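thread: overnight batch results

M.L. [08:02]
morning all. the overnight job finished for the chain we discussed friday. pasting input first so we're all looking at the same thing
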Amino acid sequence: MSDINYGDPNATPPMGQAIPLGLQHVLAMFASNVTPSIIVAGAAGLAFGGAEQVYLIQMAMLFAGVATLFQTVGMGPIGARLPIMQGTSFAFVGVLAGVAATQGLSVALTACLIAGIIHFALGSVIQKLRFMFPPLVTGLVILAIGLYLIPVAIKYAAGGAADFQMAAESFGSLKHWTVALTVVVVSLACKFLTKGLISNAAVLIGLIAGYCVAILAGMVSFGGVTKAAWFQVPTVMPYGFEFSLGAVIGVTLVSVVSAIETVGDASATTKAGAGRDATDDEIAGATYADGLGTAVAAVFGGLPNTSFSQNVGIVGMTGIMSRHVVTIAGIFLIVCGLIPKIGAVISSMPLPVLGGGVIVMFGMVAAAGMNMLTEVKMSRRNMIIISVSLAVGLGLNLVPSAVQYLPGIWKTLATSAVAPTALLAVVLNLMLPQDD
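M.L. [08:03]
and the structure it wrote out:
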């Protein structure tokens, strides 16, 4: 073991060490990976706990694993061949939830497919586009994503997201908040009072604790788990192909931001694990894998994926940069994605349990954006870009009637919070002169 160079991506730790390390990577990202599918399924009007929602959860696990193998194993120029963990991206939730609610999952997934292909093509020019997305822009976009999602977290914690759920007498009840706060308290306790595997899986452990409390409170039905099969292969284009230019533009805009985030994660991984900068081939390969993973997932009903930053932290913490460890994690996710009963168990989780988890997760997304903005000098120019982009992006989301005369999909994009914030941040950053 002493002869193994753990800073080398090609290092192969013994299986007795590699399997627990791979499981650690899965536990750190598992909750964040399945949550976007649950939210988009709810926005599309799919029955909570129903077969269609279970299927979307399956696809989130399956194609997070597939996209991870694209990164770690690679094919030709595709893949960074670094220990980069892929998962379903929160960045797309705002746009996709709006599109799914107004035009259906067929339009949303078609947009994901086309955006994934465009994202793939970015691999050849990503280095030339980086100047458009400095920390000012990417930090703003990530902050907007977190702030947009926080009200969703509060609604889930209180017991519902749809209008009929929010109108129910039980909405906001002490029972719902007890379950949600159990998740929050246990997650924080595990994160800050423990180390290693338990600390990295803090949110997942919190969800399990909240789930147990919900079972004791009689809030969980296992009917869907009983009916679910033990094995199922994915379906090609389960919702059909339906093109909408506005939806494609919106999802592609977020894809560009996601590509820049992946570049940052690739660079952070090599810094954390090997103390060096990522090469041009590694950055291009990571972007190719990102886009290919998104496009392939969309073909089978999965949402866009991206690199997961929390897993970069595990590489830095353990000092083990072996891509083979993360390959094991990807295989584990693929196996989970082929077993509908696992998706059914996740789908049986009551909304307040999920709400407690996403309060933590969405808050962390917003905090990550704020952390990126700390790298930015708060000059008058930059403060104007931040204030105008956030004010318009979040303001239109809070007052959607302000753009009620825009045609369908354009209104959806304008009120998605993420798309207008990203567009304004990029344009203003390119147009406004630098301060003296």
